[in-house]
Amino acid sequence: MGSHLILRAVGFVGGLCGLAIFAISAPPPNVIVFVADDLGWDDSGPYGNPSVKTPTMDRLAADGLVFDRALLTTSSCSPSRCSILTGRYPHNTGAPELHQPLPADQVLVSTFLRHAGYYTAAVGKWHLGEAAKVQFDRVWEKSGPSGAENWVEALQDRPRDRPFFFWLASYDPHRGYEPNTIPQPHRPAAVIVPPYLPDTPEVRADLALYYDEISRFDHYVGLACAELEAQGVLDNTFIIVISDNGRPFPRAKTRLLDSGIRTPFIVCWPAGLRRVGARTSQLVSVIDIAPTLVDLAGLAPESSFQGTSFAATLHDASAHVRDYAFAEHNWHDYQARERSVSDSRYTYIRNSRPDLPATPPADAVGSPTFRAMQRLERAGELSPAMRDAFIAPRATEELYDNLADPHSLHDLIADPAHAAALHRVRAALDQWIRDTDDQFYDDITPDHWHREHGTRLNPGRRPAGY
């Protein structure tokens, strides 16, 4: 299956770790992609949250490489998963809206890896439709509340004479929440409330339950890694931990701000990383995962992929991957159409439906957090950032400096000091729209849920596969 660049630390030379590079015929790495469902990028230990219990992710980060500027192509569950597995943007997969099944003509990275001799399996949450299932050797769908209960069994059941690719997808920390999902639940007093949510008892309790499911996800990732170690294959297994979109709270999931499209992105591969415990600020998109896996398997790049391999970053954390990352927001419970472009500093958002408020997903509308925010909104007690979900009409364009303003609280669209940056990112988005044939259609899927109550409506037209 080809030669692979193997890097090994060979001792200390003048106080620095020497590095030997051997181009040898070596087995390609096994691959596991762990996918959380609605995990905010900064809600784990490796990304600066000391309150949520994530010991497995902490260990993987300490033994791996952490990407600090990793972005999704959308902030909606099934379109995000379809995009990651095909290496294509949501509007190019034929499944850009929530619950739309991936068309049969779309090729998953699993198919290319199968051609290279890999055994492939998807375990847990699926959410890609029926047609795509034939592109895995086996699909194990949800078996319990977490969706991760069969991960270890699936790893044990694999053929031992082939490299493997596992897509291990959890339902955690997706709503709804129940108490006592972990032995030691998080205390509401210890959670970190983002500045765009009100710091009330209801919000803290809601976040604590969300933290509990993050820890449950982390626990199952740990069990899977322990099984790999017991099998003696952990060293040459390329592991990625990501989320499909931001936390299921207002101004996060379904938004194109960092809180919606930025993802944790932890890579661990003991046999292949140049050095462990490193971080990189290089921009990477989840659309780059499929090209990277094909690259690591020793295969030529596939023409269907719209991303680029980040394999060079595994050897040099400063290696440049891309100038821009692009994202889109289409129907997810409510009609919407937004596009964004991000570079290493800025995010620019263009909204084609400024007449509509930025209503969070329907399950978040029914949450204790949103109920508290509605009460405070009626009382006139929300800050401008906290009012985001209630404002209509909204701006047609937004610009944020993610370095100076990590929570995207200050829109710089009219600030002359950032005019040059605005011109540059506008042009980049326009070019991407042309390059990817991103056409605007007036026939946008209507709301399926009430924006204030979260109750189901009967709009008459549903997205395909709903």
From TrEMBL:
CDD domains membership: SGSH (cd16027)
Biased composition (Basic and acidic residues): 446-455
Segments traversing the membrane: none
Classification via InterPro entries: Alkaline_phosphatase_core_sf, Sulfatase, Sulfatase_CS, Sulfatase_N
Family: Belongs to the sulfatase family.
PANTHER family assigned to the protein according to its UniProt record, in alphabetical order: ARYLSULFATASE FAMILY MEMBER, ENDO-4-O-SULFATASE
Protein name as catalogued: Sulfatase
